[in-house]
Amino acid sequence: MKRKELSCKEFEKLMFDYIRGDLEPSVRESVEAHLSSCPSCRLKLEKEMRIERLLSDGFEQKAPLREIRNRVFDRIEAERRPFAFVKNAWKLAPAVALAFSIIAFFLMFGRSQDIEAEEIEIKTAIVAPADNDVVLPDEVEFVVVAPKDKRFSVSLIVDGEVVPLEQKAEGLMIYKPKEMEAGYHLVELIVRDSKTGLEVERESVFYVFGEEGV
After folding, report:
1. Can you tell me the distance from the alpha carbon of 184 to that of 95, in angstroms, rounded to the nearest whole number?
2. In a domain, 21, yes or no
3. Is residue 145 part of a domain?
4. Assessment of whether the complete model's pTM goes beyond 0.85
5. Residue 175's beta-bridge partner residues?
6. Do residues 189 and 107 make contact, with C-beta atoms less than 8 angstroms apart?
7. Could you give the number of structural domains in the chain?
8. Is residue 117 situated within a structural domain?
9. How many Å apart are CA 201 and CA 59, to the nearest integer?
10. What angle do CA 73, 75, 78 make, to 5 degrees?
11. The domain spanning residue 92 has which CATH number?
12. Three-class SS of residue 26?
């Protein structure tokens, strides 16, 4: 019988069962065949396996790994509540991969200005780390999509401190921290239009997984 070829989405659905060894032999072969030809899914599997090992080492109770992962996201939501004063906070979809795996996901805003009622559109997003993301310390890299026009100023604020953004291409900026402590981190992106005075804010919360566990 011909082996079924898997798509990346199908692999994602089977990934945790593959890590636990719960797949049927024929399905496992299909997963391994997909991994042999898909570098992106191999990196994703490696990351998940590292996190699962940390989870296993960091928890004495024998709770299912998915349940433990859910606890992380529950705590992320709890951490978001103290920052409710941040206006126009939008929840972004998770990035397909961390670091340089960039998702073209834009949120669009417009607002009337003065008598002319000029409408201005600002496209900006925090691509990575994605909101509610869980990452390892050496995988933290901030990727921001912002307007290309020089009249716009862009500020990235991590845990209350402005960090330096490096221009990688028009409309694409990156910040790679030397180190990030384990725990929850708040990211705020502020884009200002010097011509109209319009200001747009984005925010996200992500979790850095450390040796101490959750």
Report:
1. 18
2. no
3. yes
4. no
5. 142
6. no
7. 1
8. yes
9. 37
10. 115
11. 2.60.40.1220
12. helix
Domain that holds residue 193: 78-208
The two structure tokens encoding residue 207: 């979790």
Q: Say how far apart CA 159 and CA 56 lie, in whole Å.
A: 29
Locus of tokens 């079924």: 4
- 167, amino acid identity: Q
Residue 146 near residue 163, CB atoms below 8 Å: no
Q: Report if residue 161 sits inside a domain.
A: yes
Mean pLDDT in order along the chain per 10 residues (214 residues): 78 87 90 90 81 54 50 55 42 38 35 37 74 81 82 88 84 84 88 85 84 46
Q: Which of 52, 58, 57, 54 is nearest to 18 (CA)?
A: 52
**How far is residue 44's CA from residue 61's CA, in Å, rounded to a whole number?**
26
52 within 8 A of 198, measured Cβ to Cβ? no
In terms of residues, how long is the chain? 214
